[in-house]
Amino acid sequence: MNINYIKELNESQCAAVTYNDGPSLVIAGAGSGKTRVLTYKIAYLLENGYNPWNILALTFTNKAAREMKERIARQVGAERARYLWMGTFHSIFSRILRAEAQYIGFTSQFTIYDTADSKSLLRSIIKEMGLDEKTYKPGTVQARISNAKNHLVTPTGYAANKEAYEGDMAVKMPAIRDIYTRYWERCRQAGAMDFDDLLVYTYILFRDYPEVLARYQDQFRYILVDEYQDTNYAQHSIVLQLTKENQHVCVVGDDAQSIYSFRGADIDNILYFTKTYPNTKVFKLEQNYRSTQTIVCAANSLIEKNERQIRKAVFSEKEKGEAIGVFQAYSDVEEGDIVANKVAELRREYHYGYADFAILYRTNAQSRIFEEALRKRSMPYKIYGGLSFYQRKEIKDVIAYFRLVVNPNDEEAFKRIINYPARGIGDTTVGKIISAATDHGVSLWSTLCEPLTYGLNINKGTHTKLQGFRALIEGFITDQADKNAYEIGVDIIRQSGIMNDVCQDTSPENLSRKENIEELVNGMNDFCALRQEEGNPNISLTDFLSEIALLTDQDSDKADDGEKITLMTVHSAKGLEFKNVFVVGLEENLFPSGMVGDSPRALEEERRLFYVAITRAEEHCYLSFAKTRFRYGKMEFGSPSRFLRDIDIHYLKMPHEAGISRSVDEGAGRFRREIEGGFTRSASPSRTTPFGSASSERKERPKAQIIAPGVPRNLKKVSTVSGGSQAMSSGPVSVAGLQAGQRIEHERFGLGEVMKVEGTGDNAKATIHFKNAGEKQLLLRFARFKVI
Ligand code: ATP
Ligand code: MG
């Protein structure tokens, strides 16, 4: 188990790994080995006498924790690595809270509400309070409450210091603190915690029960945190509670990659770490081991534009590499085609596997276009985030049953299934149950069980139906005592009537719902088997629910990812690396997001996000933008992102040189002006083509100085059908000389071969076989292509 630190780490990394005299902070740019330092440090601690169960490592995703554990297992053996405490803040804290639930008035079976549950509960509270949903939008209220919780502000604290927490909201939404108070109470009655509560209650547990805190301080002799720049105040405070005495803490992060402020992440945690822990030893890592020199320099030139940052000199000693290719597409659909074609081309040229590619976008909605482009070409891909498996309706229904069986007080689960499958319990009855429960400060389930005690005014028929539902759930509660998660899961799905309901109708949509439920059951079986292998024979429904409640966007639903192209948001890509990265949709109001408005802080965060995106690439990086995009149900015209201008142009490869040129004359000159000054479309009175003005700019030739030094020019010789320069622009194109056998590149359909040419003048048409789009007949008068 002896690790050759000198061989596998550079000098500064080695110093950071072996430093053990107090708190330490590793602050360094992307790809400089921060995660590697953390991993090796854990191995080092194990070698130097620490027990694995005394080490706590907090990562940003469960997947990251798993990978880190696997790497450590290879170094110190699986048996030792198994006992390490590793996971996200939320999963580790929920584990602690389940063990100590009685201290804070919960049971260890508490439910974890997801965002949709919280929103639904807030919506009913807003309605019950007679407030206007247009003023009190559940999403906005939820964000306010979440923000308060991430600052450890409970409803009492909120009410006591409303000026501080409400600001102008106090005028716009004066009832927020009352909603918060009610929400807090209702979650407690339901035995439920939302994601933020997992932090708040852990903090309260440690604050109010010093003996419990002492136990965990003793347990965790060393705490390590990855991606520290994205911790919020609550997370920072809990780490401080645990490490205050022994100061055995090592955090790693990069202020330039802080991208979660919308979730309460506070960049100050890293900026002021040395003030919180005055004896901190700071380590800086400057060598990037991930990316080519060009990619590192391009990323540096971008992030330099941010004012608020710790300046770093990141360099790479890897090869210079190719310049970053910039693609401009006419439409979002074309952007999908360009990227898919480029993937195919790179695979041919460099023999990359599909898993060497990632397509990163700003918003989940952008994935569809790329999915279509890849599917059309039978290229395998996997997609993270978006509507995950567990958010599908039929899965949520099943899970609601599971939740109610584990915790009958769970209000959101109760409301979801009290009348699903239909059992004749209408909204009026549910409304009565809610108001009786609220009046008496008890859960919906308690009200259902004791209707007389809580004054529930219902007729006999309804009473019978409610008691039927109660008997069904109680039957499952009894049965689960001696069944594992999989066995009781199967019983519930069968006996609740869900499977019947789904099987009743044989439409393809219902068929896929049935398959999804079967998939869930298989997943439960695998989960139980896996845990059994790890030495835990009794896997309960609670264990299963805990596991799925805490999946992050980056934690794939399925274990086997295989040889596939990765599609994900930039946020989810944090910490990862790929040989080839496409950052797409680089348009104003998309990336940077339209939400930025005129806030310089928000803009800097978007720029950091773009920095994260570029720095995922090891060998090739491509940036693309589309001039038209279908958004919110309509076609929008976009202009190139200002971030393209932030990158030193020496590191960029212009559109035509990137291999997707329109024509030589549509070259770098105009493109450069576009990214320097926004689109020139409106400024030019001359004929406008789908790619901009087709007149004066046409004469510009690509200039040598805008090509990255050392980058092979690889200019394709381009001729056009008309022998002039307007190929691939709209308007009539002369067909002189177009013959069968010639190869062309069409603006929309890509590469193709002319099969035959018929007719003359305005009626001339050609039959063209396109590589990716099949055979098409094009009226040459309108066709937009060039001969290559
Ligand atoms: P990020 O900021 O994106 O989280 P990071 O600083 O955590 O990046 P790592 O992911 O730890 O960086 O390392 C980046 C890549 O460089 C990894 O593939 C890692 O294995 C490799 N690497 C790090 N240090 C060295 C080294 N000393 N020698 C060789 N490869 C290294
Ligand atoms: Mg990392």
Task: Describe the structure in your own words.
With 788 residues, the chain is α/β, with parallel strands linked by helices. It is 44% helix and 15% strand. It is built from 33 helices and 25 strands. Strands 11, 12, 13, 14, 15, 16, 17 and 18 form an eight-stranded mixed beta sheet that branches. The protein has a six-stranded parallel beta sheet with strand order 3-2-6-7-1-8, with helices on both faces. A five-stranded antiparallel beta sheet has the order 24-23-22-21-25, with no helix packed on it. The chain is globular, with a radius of gyration of 30 Å. 45% of the residues are buried. Mean pLDDT is 85; it is low at 657-668 and 678-735. Bound molecules: adenosine-5'-triphosphate and magnesium ion.
Indicate the topology.
Layout: H1 5-8, H2 11-18, E1 24-28, H3 34-47, E2 55-59, H4 62-76, H5 78-81, E3 85-88, H6 89-100, E4 111-113, H7 115-128, H8 138-150, H9 155-160, H10 162-166, H11 169-172, H12 176-189, E5 192-194, H13 195-208, H14 210-219, E6 222-225, H15 233-243, E7 249-253, H16 268-271, H17 273-276, E8 281-285, E9 287-288, H18 293-303, E10 315-316, E11 324-331, H19 332-350, E12 357-361, H20 367-376, E13 381-383, H21 393-406, H22 411-417, H23 427-440, H24 444-449, H25 460-480, H26 485-495, H27 498-504, H28 508-533, H29 541-549, E14 565-569, E15 578-583, H30 600-614, E16 617-631, E17 634-637, H31 642-646, E18 652-653, H32 656-660, H33 668-677, E19 688-689, E20 692-693, E21 743-746, E22 750-758, E23 765-770, E24 774-779, E25 785-787
Parallel strand pairs: 1-7, 1-8, 2-3, 2-6, 4-5, 6-7, 9-10, 11-16, 11-18, 12-14, 12-15, 13-14, 15-16
Antiparallel strand pairs: 16-17, 19-20, 21-22, 21-25, 22-23, 23-24
Helix pairs in contact: 2-3, 3-4, 6-13, 7-8, 7-12, 13-14, 13-15, 18-30, 19-20, 21-22, 21-25, 25-26, 26-28, 26-29
Residues 9-10, 13, 28, 30-36, 254, 257, 289-290, 575, 577 line the site of adenosine-5'-triphosphate.
